[in-house]
Design a protein that fits this description.
The complex is a heterodimer of chains A (175) and B (176). Chain A has 175 residues and is of the alpha+beta class. Helices cover 16% and strands 46% of the residues of chain A. A 5-stranded mixed β-sheet of chain A has the order 3-1-10-5-8, with no helix packed on it. A 5-stranded antiparallel β-sheet of chain A has the order 2-4-9-6-7, with no helix packed on it. In chain A, β6 and β7 (112-118) form a beta hairpin. The radius of gyration of chain A is 29 Å and the shape is rod-shaped. Chain B is built from 3 helices and 7 strands; from the N terminus they run αβββββββαα. Chain B has a 7-stranded antiparallel β-sheet. The two termini of chain B are 30 Å apart. The chains are: A alpha+beta (175), B alpha+beta (176).
Chain lengths: 175, 176
């Protein structure tokens, strides 16, 4: 049998080792931290033929849009290439519905707000408030952002490409 | 017993306690719906290094939050497990869509689970033990890390059993 002193040393050593192991495991914890991903948004313009649209490529490009963040914007220029006056309309067709409730889109024609709302609400044809005479043009600016809130929190890591379809409808009363 | 020898003995027991504690940290979670996984890549560095062992506890998918580190099946290769941080969560009817990304990565993974499913949430990591776990899956590693220590332990125990008898016989033999 071991003497009591030797036994005490054994138990003290064992306990110290176990306590050290517990301390180390606690310090090696992997806590949740940060991690909120932003949303990637691309917007490109597509014309139905009555309008000259430039550029037809991506004109709004935003990587890692975060809720409450500054957002992104881009401008596309439209020109009436028909022989009569046209009322300009647009509708937004996203590649997925992931940002329908989260992404706020604001459209301005020549610096005047013509449409503002969540992406999902701009899927219908919307009059951009511009009537263009033959040869006349207008600059359409699109601004996108993610207002803070539950819907925006669900936008993390989503990636959406939005096609802004643009068409000119003949104005009934000329100009 | 000299003081130095007593101290050495205490330190040896402390080392044994430390080793037992680490083994417990790997094995005990198995009884509590948790599992250890070896991390093979550096995609979560610096939070988790390649070669670490992580212990992930089964957690309802609804309880997972942004920033949690989770272990899940690779959406592109169901045989592979990935441990990455949750960056996006979206409820989609009866399912939950997750977007995850390694802290050191630029690409993301998108995967969905049923809303009543469980997901492995990483609780802690054990540095370098993933290398050991991987090594034990090879024949040489198993021989070196499992068979050899067990053999050494067995030999030590047998020596302890035989030694007192030999010590008892020796003084008697000297006397005659």
């Amino acid at each position: 049998m071991s003497p009591p002193k030797a036994n005490a040393g054994k138990w003290i050593g064992l306990a110290a080792g176990l306590v050290l192991a517990a301390g180390l495991v606690l310090s090696w914890g992997v806590p949740a931290s940060g991690g909120q991903l932003g949303a990637d948004v691309r917007m490109l313009a597509a014309s139905t033929g009555e309008l000259d649209v430039r550029p037809t490529a991506v004109f709004v490009s935003a990587d890692e849009l975060l809720p409450g963040g500054p957002g992104a914007s881009g401008t596309v220029s439209l020109g009436n290439i028909t022989g009569g006056p046209l009322v300009v309309e647009t509708r937004l067709t996203p590649s997925s519905a992931a940002l329908d409730r989260a992404l706020r889109v604001r459209l301005e024609a020549d610096s005047e707000v013509v449409a503002i709302g969540r992406l999902g609400s701009l899927r219908r044809w919307t009059n951009v408030g511009a009537t263009l005479d033959p040869g006349e043009g207008v600059a359409l600016e699109a601004r996108v952002d993610l207002p803070a809130g539950q819907a925006a929190a669900e936008a993390g890591g989503q990636s959406v490409e939005i096609t802004a379809e643009l068409r000119g409808r003949p104005a009934r009363d000329g100009r | 017993m000299t003081a130095t020898r007593a101290l050495a003995r205490t330190l040896a027991w402390a080392a044994a306690g430390l080793a037992a504690g680490i083994v417990l940290a790997v094995a005990a979670p198995l009884a509590f719906d948790a599992r250890p996984y070896s991390v093979l890549s550096g995609s979560m560095e610096p939070a988790i290094a390649a070669g670490d062992l992580v212990v992930a506890r089964r957690t309802p998918a609804t309880a997972i939050g942004i920033g949690d580190v989770v272990t899940f099946r690779d959406p592109d290769d169901g045989a592979r497990l990935i441990t990455h941080r949750v960056g996006g969560i979206r409820r989609d009817g009866g399912r939950i869509a997750f977007v995850t990304r390694g802290d050191a990565n630029t690409g993301v993974e998108r995967w969905r689970v049923s809303a009543d499913a469980d997901v492995g949430r990483v609780a802690y990591r054990l540095p370098l033990l993933g290398h050991v776990a991987v090594a034990t899956r090879t024949r040489t590693g198993f021989a070196l890390l499992v068979v050899l220590p067990l053999l050494a332990l067995a030999i030590n125990e047998l020596a302890r059993i035989w030694r007192p008898a030999a010590e008892k016989e020796a003084p008697g033999a000297a006397r005659t």
